Amino acid sequence: MFQINENYQKLPGSYLFSTIAKKVAAFTEANPDKDIIRLGIGDVTQPLAPAVIEAMHKAVDEMSKAESFHGYAPDLGYDFLRNAIVENDYKARGCDISADEIFVSDGAKSDSSNIQEIFGAKNRIAVCDPVYPVYVDSNVMAGRTGVYDADTEMWSDVIYMPCVMENGFVPEFPKETPDMIYLCLPNNPTGTTITKAQLQEWVNYANKVGAVIIYDAAYEAYISESDVAHSIYECEGAKTCAIELKSYSKNAGFTGVRLGYTVVPKELKCGDVSLNGMWARRHGTKFNGAPYIVQRAGEATYSPQGKAQLKDQVAYYMKNASMIKDGLQEAGYTVFGGVNAPYIWLKTPDKMTSWEFFDYLLENANVVGTPGSGFGPSGEGYFRLTAFGSYENTLAALARIKQL
Ligand code: MLT
């Protein structure tokens, strides 16, 4: 008789955004006349940039002719994209990353959940609390998190680094020494970030204790302050301790297109073993390459037109972020984030729990957000709104919230 991976049985509930989708579907069914505004999951709403569309059309046409048809993509990514990444995302920022350290993928969600596979089962992970649920859940599936305590909503073997109002949402070095440290900066869900100098301290700490940092930079394009690093490799010593994950979902609207990449520097080693080689082995075995059409779309994000169009798109969403932030503040809410990231993190009013506020907002304003507690116990009493809605919907949602 076959056996299942028992670790899956340990996962409490369903994936956060599936739970929310189910709740919203039930509300819609019971209230078909209500016009729901969705500011929950961080899904983009603006169409792909013209430069991206043009590149995709061209690539589709190439696929229609035998002489320019493309079958399996190189498993680690086409050189045209890997070179564009090196030039634009790294060299332009003074980071010494080479094309063979870039692994093109179908997005940062898969990479952030898969990357743990190349690490030992006994490694202790440290996560910010609140945290993007994928980091913890993927380690639960791998059997690395110990026992779940339903009262505290914590795993016995996970090291939590609370990021709350009181510490300015800046993670502090944990008392216990971790082996793997997940950092998402600018942060999902709090929308806050840390300075390059603070990030350098994390790099120094990781090198000192022999930990690896899994650095999720999915929201990098939203950084507006000059003292914030766009890549962890801007910090000295990061190549011996950090893996960086990047996504085209948020900066280029590729949530439905699917493209991302992971950087594993060759200098990152465990003893004599190169993690770059391990990830290449894993990627080559389990992944057949992002589609040619999609990689051409990714390349187009780096053309002069593509860059200008994406800058406008980011500005569009950040205008929403400022509007939500200012509007909620005027309405008396305590609000964070929204300066270097497209998320607004607010304190729930009147001591409501995160889920109470979720229901209250859904029922009374017909606005969907994300309960902070869904991201971890320290998210309790907070609530996340995304700036990725359309301007009109964001304006309307704000007007409704203000009327409550
Ligand atoms: C979020 O809403 O946290 C993100 O959109 C989820 C994701 O990127 O997978």
Uncertain runs are none
Helix count equals 12
What strand order characterises the main sheet?
A: 2-10-9-8-7-3-6
Mean pLDDT: 97
Distance between the termini: 57 Å
Please tally the β strands and state the result: 17
Question: Strand percentage, roughly?
Answer: 15-25%
Assembly of the depicted chains: single chain
Order of helices and strands: HEHHEHEHEEEEHEEHEEEHHHEEHEEEH
Molecular shape: globular
How would you characterize the largest beta sheet? 7 strands, mixed
- Main structural class: alpha/beta
Bound molecules: D-malate
Rg calculated over all Cα atoms: 21 Å
Share of residues in helices: 25-40%
What can you tell me about this protein's structure?
The chain has 404 residues and is α/β, with parallel strands linked by helices. It contains 12 helices and 17 strands. It has helices at residues 16-30, 50-63, 79-90, 108-114, 133-141, 196-209, 249-252, 275-286, 292-300, 304-330, 354-365, 391-402, and strands at 37-38, 102-105, 125-129, 148-149, 154-155, 158-162, 180-184, 212-216, 242-247, 260-263, 269-270, 273-274, 335-337, 343-347, 367-368, 370-371, 382-386. The strands form 5 sheets. It has a 7-stranded mixed sheet, sandwiched between helices. The protein is globular.
